[in-house]
Amino acid sequence: MFEIGKLCIKTAGRDAGKKAVVVSILDEKYVLIDGETRRRKCNIAHLEPLEGTVDIKKDASHEEISKAFDEIGLKARDVTPKEKKERPKKIKKEKEAAEPKEKKKPAKKSEEKKEVVKTETKKPVKKPKEKKEVKPKTKKEESKKK
Amino acid sequence: MPAPRLRSRSLRKIYVRTPGGRTIIHYRYKKPELAKCSSCGNPLKGVPNERPDKMRKLPKTKKRPSRPHPNLCSKCMRREIIREARKNV
User: Fold this and answer.
1) Contact assignment for B85 to A48 by CB distance below 8 Å
2) ipTM associated with this complex
3) In Å, what is the CA distance from A72 to each residue of A18, A19, A38?
4) B66–A51: do the CB atoms touch at under 8 Å?
5) Which of A32, A35, A96, A123 is deepest in the core (most CB within 10 A)?
């Protein structure tokens, strides 16, 4: 019933309802098909024969089948790999890159503050009065340096 | 007596035995009905039945089969495809 070049329609699985051609006969049960479906081994019970045949040699390549399909008026499956799309994550990176330029100045200030805080935290445990002395000292020093 | 908000038939009860030996009732929301084939009425396989908050979190590919006629069961779909194929012959 299923000879090489026989047109058929697949009735099971993700390729159900798509047309294909028998490319080679593997077994009493199984057949290799190609066409609108992906090129695959298929159980005969999952195929429904259609009227008509396609001129194909045994184990024909997908290109040959796609040419034969164009003559009938059908379109074989595209095997060409898809072009990779740019992910939207890249936009986020640009934003991050743009922001730190503005943030750089405040970041320095925060570092200075942190240093001050460290000096504060170490000393005030014993005497809180030194805290007040430490702050102005740093500011004066900075001003002197400038 | 359970709290008034739990005295509702939209909740199902689960009997839980505690370590102390008591049995308590836990309350959970019922699941919706199974999706059914629109031609024969049998439950569809590959379609989860969850509450809408969980269904929303699922990807689209996990909510329906990838074959054509996702509203039909596999037998009815096959019958439909074969019928269409034989019409033209």
Assistant:
1) yes
2) 0.72
3) 15, 12, 19
4) no
5) A35
